[in-house]
Design brief:
alpha/beta, Rossmann fold, 4-stranded mixed β-sheet, two-stranded parallel ribbon, 10 helices, globular
Length: 241
């Protein structure tokens, strides 16, 4: 989660889900962003139902789960759609997403949720239902404020305590850009161990993969981004224990 757009939430959520599935975990990826871009990291898939169909209680959650296979992984996905933005404006149930999770969680080792950069009722639903939250952040001045606002919103609006946030992840990092190392140092000073030691670099290969409906592991296994995301996944596994 992050209230700032462009922090790389979707890319990280999709790759976290994919790599966990490569490690033979049973994984469900849920896209709750109406922009519906998680699907770009997978072979094209036709789907009849999306997250808004489930939350409206018209469709059983199991009918909206689609199994997607990449070159090296297999996982389940609940897609999103632009209809979610319209649906959210009238949605009132703060427990709807938790009810969804409770119906399927016994079938999975991990359920990964991609969120929008809004703190609307859908994100409040997600925040109150999940067990762990990761905040990806680009190390710039604008994103410093974004992290602070995100934590305040989680606390005041969704009543999520800081201990539910398992990490702040520096993302799209350009080490040669002077401000990036400076702000990573700032995050370490302010948030201490909450900051991931893994950093995800800006990588042209990672920026291309969604255009080809694939992921960085299948597209460029030995790239810097691929290796960094693997470190991020392993560090996440350590953090949730």
């Amino acid at each position: 989660m992050n209230l700032k757009g462009g922090a790389g939430k979707t890319t990280l959520a999709a790759h976290l889900a994919i790599y966990l599935s490569k490690l033979d975990f049973k994984v469900l990826l849920i896209d709750t962003d109406h922009q519906s871009q998680c699907k770009l990291f997978f072979p094209q898939q036709e789907f009849n139902y999306a997250i808004d169909d489930i939350l409206s209680k018209n469709i059983d959650v199991h009918d909206a789960i689609y199994t997607v296979t990449t070159e090296t992984s297999k996982l389940d996905i609940i897609f999103s759609s632009y209809a979610l933005a319209l649906f959210a404006s009238d949605y009132k149930n703060l427990d709807g997403f938790l009810e969804l999770i409770n119906k399927v969680k016994k079938n999975y080792d991990f359920i990964i949720v991609d969120t929008s950069p809004n703190f609307d009722i859908i994100n409040r639903n997600v925040a109150m239902a999940v067990t762990h939250i990761i905040i990806p952040v680009i190390p710039t001045n604008m994103h410093v404020e974004g992290v602070e606002h995100q934590i305040q919103a989680l606390d005041k609006i969704a009543h999520v305590s800081l201990d539910r946030i398992i990490g702040i992840l520096p993302n799209i990092v350009v080490s040669k850009q002077v401000e990036h190392p400076t702000y990573i140092e700032y995050f370490n000073k302010v948030y201490g161990d909450l900051v991931y030691t893994a950093n995800i670099p800006r990588d042209p290969f990672l920026e291309k993969v969604s255009s080809f409906n694939t992921n960085i592991f299948d597209y460029r296994e030995k790239s810097k981004a691929s290796q960094a995301i693997k470190k991020f996944v392993w560090e996440t596994l350590r953090r949730i224990k």
